[in-house]
């Protein structure tokens, strides 16, 4: 701010100086230098910052992370996990990367104690960077059900989870998953409940993205991507299949009666085909009024050997074969050639097949539906936000592209804690990544060069108008060679 005030202090008393490259350049350099220092400090802090509140689980993958994570012993998971440093613009920062393209990866970590949500907010948040983009890859995580921590070495796709959340992209699928496993207390069966209309993954551009799921005590949920709300829904209304089954269901033993009429219309039995209705007449006939155009050649072919073509001088019949002139359009066929046929037109007498008109069906009973019976498996859970207890987190994925990095996994009961942590970490990282992309964008150097050239021309024009002022600012030996427009 002080630098900006210093630079703009020239405005009231010295407006002419605003056209002087020396002052402008000095201010820009000072501002850029200050911003660079501030940015560097923020980047250093981002690598070591901790959530400023309570949390259930936090993993920044700093030194010592290996002691908390367990690799599966299942033989189908052959992918190697890589602990990577400085994978983005944040220095001294670490992440966990799926390093083996085309292979399955799986590892998990137990919580210090089981998470039991009781009428409180629940937030899960983490960062993903697809260094090679996303081809057919998932980057979601699983919050494993209580007692999973006892068998993490056996972690595979069959180990039951409570929540699955995160990006997935393959073929026509491109979404952020939110799947809740919910148990029917009557049948004791578990069923996956998928959030409907979840947002696109946004993970294919190789930048670091932040994914946040919030479940609130009023049964509402919200999905954020890069700190921006992308979906809001209700656990009671926006899950498929619904959390609560219907109270009544169709009777599977009920069948439609054989005499049930469900056609609202019927052929008029009193109607008859008119005597002059001829179904044999063709829909199209030759145009009797058409005449063969003047100049039409019935006996000429459409394509002929080029009469003007000549065999090349270097053509050798023994080596190249018999020479033949190239085929071209017959110049005698400008109007037309070959057998002339009359064009067809729609037959004005054509009527087609006759059908009797439709009338209301006097026996119509309406659409048939089986009768409803009470659903013996019915239950009602009015508090699905109190999800099943969890005691571990797992990442179990197949990656085709490889190079997917996970970082800053955070599970908490506070939206404020998650937001504050994202402000100090992901937001800083995102700003630097975006700046780097902009800096390396095509045309950046050319645009800067053009701007400097234009500024040089403007100073040259001012020098022609008021040389004393320009010399007073730059001295008798100006640092720029002033030019002017022709």
Automatic annotation (TrEMBL):
Belongs to the calreticulin family. Its main location: membrane. It is found in: Endomembrane system; Endoplasmic reticulum membrane. It is a single-pass type I membrane protein; Single-pass membrane protein. One of its GO terms (molecular function) is unfolded protein binding. It comes from Guillardia theta (Cryptophyte). GO terms for cellular component: endoplasmic reticulum membrane. InterPro entries: Calret/calnex (IPR001580), Calret/calnex_CS (IPR018124), Calreticulin/calnexin_P_dom_sf (IPR009033), ConA-like_dom_sf (IPR013320). One of its GO terms (biological process) is protein folding. Pfam families: Calreticulin. This is Calreticulin. Residues 234-329 are annotated as: Disordered. Keywords: Calcium, Chaperone, Disulfide bond, Endoplasmic reticulum, Glycoprotein, Lectin, Membrane, Metal-binding, Repeat, Signal, Transmembrane, Transmembrane helix.
């Amino acid at each position: 701010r002080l630098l900006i005030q210093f630079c703009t202090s020239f405005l009231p008393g010295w407006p002419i100086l605003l056209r002087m490259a020396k002052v402008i350049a000095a201010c820009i350099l000072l501002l850029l230098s200050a911003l660079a220092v501030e940015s560097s400090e923020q980047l250093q802090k981002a690598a070591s910052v901790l959530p400023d509140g309570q949390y259930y689980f936090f993993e920044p993958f700093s030194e010592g992370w290996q002691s908390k994570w367990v690799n599966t012993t299942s033989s189908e998971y052959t992918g190697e996990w890589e602990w990577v440093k400085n994978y983005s613009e944040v220095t001294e920062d670490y992440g966990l990367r799926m390093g083996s393209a085309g292979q399955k990866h799986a590892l998990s970590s137990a919580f210090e104690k089981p998470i039991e949500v009781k009428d409180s907010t629940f937030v899960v948040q983490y960062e993903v960077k697809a260094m090679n983009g996303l081809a057919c890859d998932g980057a979601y995580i699983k919050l494993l059900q209580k007692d999973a921590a006892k068998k993490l070495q056996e972690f595979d796709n069959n180990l039951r989870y409570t929540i699955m959340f995160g990006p997935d992209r393959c073929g026509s699928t491109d979404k952020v998953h939110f799947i809740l496993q919910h148990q029917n207390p009557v049948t004791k069966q578990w069923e996956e409940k998928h959030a409907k209309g979840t947002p696109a993954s946004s993970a294919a551009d190789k930048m670091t993205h932040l994914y946040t799921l919030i479940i609130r005590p009023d049964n509402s949920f919200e999905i954020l991507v890069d700190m921006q709300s992308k979906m809001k829904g209700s656990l009671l209304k926006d899950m498929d299949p619904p959390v609560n089954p219907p109270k009544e269901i169709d009777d599977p033993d009920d069948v439609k009666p054989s005499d049930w009429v469900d056609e609202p219309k019927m052929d008029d039995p009193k109607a008859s085909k008119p005597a002059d209705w001829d179904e044999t007449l063709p829909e199209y006939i030759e145009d009797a009024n058409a005449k063969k155009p003047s100049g039409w050649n019935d006996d000429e072919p459409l394509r002929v050997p080029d009469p003007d073509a000549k065999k090349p001088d270097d053509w050798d019949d023994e080596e190249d074969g018999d020479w033949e002139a190239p085929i071209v359009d017959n110049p005698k066929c400008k109007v037309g050639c070959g057998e002339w046929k009359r064009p067809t037109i729609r037959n004005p007498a054509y009527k087609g097949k006759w059908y009797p008109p439709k009338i209301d069906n006097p026996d119509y009973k309406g659409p048939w539906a089986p009768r409803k019976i009470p659903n013996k498996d019915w239950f009602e859970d009015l508090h699905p936000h109190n999800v099943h207890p969890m005691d571990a987190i797992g990442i179990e994925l197949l990656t085709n592209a490889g190079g997917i990095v996970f970082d800053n996994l955070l599970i908490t009961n506070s939206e404020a804690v998650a937001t504050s942590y994202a402000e100090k970490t992901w937001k800083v990282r995102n700003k630097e990544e975006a700046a780097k992309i902009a800096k390396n964008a095509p045309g950046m150097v050319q645009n800067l060069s053009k701007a400097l050239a234009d500024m040089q021309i403007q100073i040259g024009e001012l020098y022609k108008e008021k040389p004393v002022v320009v010399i007073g600012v730059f001295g008798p030996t100006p640092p720029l060679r002033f030019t002017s427009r022709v």
